[in-house]
Specification:
By secondary structure, the protein is mostly helical. 62% of the residues lie in helices and 5% in strands.
C-alpha cells in the first residue's frame, strides 16, 4: 500500500490552517472538529477499470516522472539515481505481485466454476454446435475475463431487447448490441459474416432464431456470472481487509466501496439526528496520478461542509434533503439534484486551497516532480466550463456561500439572491453539466450558437441563461437592500416624530 492513514493524518493540521485561511478564522473550530474526528479507510485499488491496475499503473507513473526528472543529468548519474529510486519502490512492487497472485488464484477458481455451471444450463443443440465448431465454453462466451465481462449470450437478454425496441435509444448503443449478437451466431458456425451482414436480415431466418437460448437460460447465466464475481471479490477483499471485524452495516459499506472503486466521504447520522460521523475512502484510481493532493483537499472540503441542520444531514447545498431523502437530478438521475453544483463549488474551493499550499512550496502525497499543474486539474471531476461559470457567483456571494455550506443554514444566502434564482442556477448547471459530458466538450471554445449539433446550441443557451440569472440575483439583492433601507428610514422618521417635544 503506497499510502496509509498516517500519511494523510500528519497533514491534517496543515489542511486545517489552509481551509481556515480560505474560509475565515471564525470557522476554524468547526473545521478542526470535523477534520480531527474523521475516520479513514485506505485501500489498494487492484481491480481498476479499464483493466489497468490502479497501484500498478501508478507505480509506472512514478518511474516515468523520475525518468523525466533525471533527463537533464548525465547518463551515468541518471541511471544510478533511477535505480536507487526504483529500489525504494520495490516493496510496493512486491506487494502488488503478491496481491495479483492471490487475486488471480481466486478469480481462476471462480471462473472455472462459472464456466462449468453455465455449460450445464445450455440446451443440447448449442452444446453440439460448440463441439462441432471446436468451441470451449470461454471462446463461446466471447470474453477474456469471464467474470468481469458480459458474454455474447448476455446480449440476448430481455433488457437488451427493450433497448433495441426503444426509438429514443442511442443508435450506436443499438449497433453495439447487434454486433455482439452477430458474433454469437458466428461462434456457433452460422453461415454469416458478423462484420458485413445485416443483423435485421439475419435475425429473420428461422434457423438462426433456433440458436438463441430461452430468456430463462440467459438470465440464469447472467446471474451465475454476477454471483461468482461477487464471491470472488468477497473472498479476495475479505482476505485483504478483514472486513468481518466491522458491524454489518459498516462491513457492507466497506465492501461495496471497494467493489465500486469509490473515493469519497461517507457520512452517517444517529437516529435522533444529534450526532454524525464521516469516513474517508481513499485509494489511487486510474488517471488520477499527479493530482492526489487536490483529490484529498476536495474530499476533506466535503468533510468540512457536512453537518446537521434542522434534523437533516447537510452536505454543501443539500437544500431540502432530510430523513425523507433527496430529489434526483432531472437530466442525469445517477446524481441528486444539488450534487453537481456541490461538486463544482467544492472543486473551486479545493483548487484555491491547493493554490495556497503550492504558493508556500508545500506538497503532501506527491512531490514537486510528480505533481500536475493546476491548469491540468481544471477539468478534473467537473468541467472547467461550469467551474469558470460559477466563479463570479462564488466571488460575489462568497461570505454567504461559505456560511451556508459550513453551517447548513442557507437562509442568508437565499435571502440575498432569492431562492428561485438559486434553483434556476442549479438547474442550469445540472443541464450544462449533463450536455458537456454527453458531447465530450472540454473547452468553451467548442460551444457555438450556430452549431449544427442541437446539444451544443443548448449549451450556449444555458451559458446565456446563467448570465441572466446573475443579473436577476443582482436585481434581487438591490431590491432587498432598497426595501431594507426604506424600512429603516421609515422607522427612523417615525421614531423621530415620537421623540419631538411639543
Amino acid at each position: 500500500m503506497m499510502f496509509t492513514e498516517n500519511d494523510i493524518r500528519k497533514y491534517i493540521p496543515l489542511i486545517i490552517d489552509t481551509y481556515s485561511e480560505l474560509f475565515g478564522e471564525k470557522y476554524r473550530n468547526i473545521i478542526t472538529m470535523r477534520l480531527n474526528s474523521l475516520q479513514y479507510f485506505i485501500y489498494d485499488n487492484i481491480t481498476d477499470a479499464p483493466n489497468i491496475e490502479g497501484f500498478e499503473s501508478y507505480y509506472d507513473y512514478l518511474l516515468n516522472c523520475k525518468q523525466k526528472e533525471l533527463s537533464t543529468k548525465s547518463p551515468e548519474l541518471a541511471e544510478t539515481e533511477y535505480e536507487n529510486y526504483k529500489a525504494t519502490l520495490e516493496p510496493y512492487r512486491m506487494s502488488m505481485l503478491e496481491k495479483h497472485e492471490l487475486k488471480e488464484n481466486i478469480y481462476n477458481e471462480k471462473s472455472e466454476k462459472f464456466l462449468e455451471k453455465s455449460y450445464s444450463e445450455l440446451p443440447f443443440k448449442i452444446k453440439f454446435l460448440m463441439y462441432k465448431n471446436h468451441q470451449t465454453m470461454q471462446s463461446f462466451l466471447g470474453s477474456i475475463d469471464v467474470l468481469e465481462e458480459q458474454s455474447n449470450i448476455e446480449f440476448f437478454s430481455s433488457s437488451y431487447d427493450k433497448v433495441l425496441e426503444d426509438p429514443n435509444e442511442n443508435e450506436n448503443t443499438k449497433e453495439s448490441i447487434k454486433n455482439f449478437r452477430m458474433r454469437y451466431f458466428s461462434s456457433l458456425g452460422a453461415p454469416i459474416n458478423p462484420y458485413t451482414d445485416c443483423y435485421e436480415d439475419v435475425i429473420k431466418k428461422r434457423k438462426i432464431k433456433k440458436l438463441i437460448p430461452s430468456k430463462e437460460i440467459i438470465e440464469k447465466i447472467i446471474n451465475l456470472r454476477k454471483n461468482m464475481l461477487n464471491e470472488a471479490k468477497k473472498e479476495y477483499y475479505y482476505t485483504q481487509y478483514d472486513l468481518e471485524k466491522y458491524p454489518s452495516y459498516i462491513e457492507n459499506d466497506r465492501f461495496n466501496s471497494i467493489c465500486n472503486n469509490r473515493l469519497c466521504i461517507a457520512s452517517s447520522v444517529n437516529f435522533n439526528y444529534t450526532n454524525f460521523d464521516s469516513t474517508l475512502y481513499f485509494t489511487v484510481r486510474y488517471g488520477e496520478y499527479g493530482i492526489l493532493d487536490y483529490v484529498l483537499l476536495h474530499e476533506l472540503c466535503h468533510v468540512i461542509e457536512t453537518g446537521i441542520f434542522n434534523n437533516s444531514l447537510i452536505t454543501g447545498f443539500a437544500i431540502g434533503s432530510s430523513k425523507n431523502g433527496t430529489e434526483n437530478n432531472p437530466y442525469d438521475n445517477k446524481y441528486t439534484i444539488y450534487e453537481r453544483l456541490n461538486e463544482n463549488i467544492t472543486d473551486i474551493f479545493a483548487i484555491d486551497a491547493l493554490g495556497i499550499l503550492r504558493n508556500k512550496g508545500i506538497y503532501m502525497l506527491e512531490d514537486e516532480n510528480t505533481i500536475k499543474g493546476i491548469d491540468e486539474i481544471k477539468n478534473s471531476n467537473t468541467s472547467q466550463i461550469t467551474k469558470n461559470l460559477l466563479r463570479p457567483f462564488v466571488k460575489k456571494y462568497r461570505e454567504q456561500i461559505i456560511r451556508a455550506r459550513i453551517t447548513g443554514n442557507n437562509t442568508k444566502l437565499l435571502d440575498i439572491i432569492g431562492k428561485e434564482n438559486f434553483e434556476e442556477l442549479n438547474d442550469a448547471i445540472n443541464k450544462l453539466d449533463y450536455l458537456i459530458y454527453l458531447e465530450g466538450i472540454y473547452s468553451i471554445e467548442f460551444i457555438n450558437e450556430k452549431s449544427s449539433n442541437v446539444n451544443i446550441v443548448e449549451c450556449y443557451n444555458q451559458l446565456q441563461r446563467v448570465e441572466k440569472i446573475y443579473t436577476n440575483m443582482d436585481n434581487y439583492k438591490n431590491n432587498i437592500e432598497q426595501i431594507n433601507e426604506n424600512t429603516y428610514n421609515s422607522e427612523y422618521n417615525h421614531l423621530s416624530d415620537d421623540m419631538e417635544i411639543e
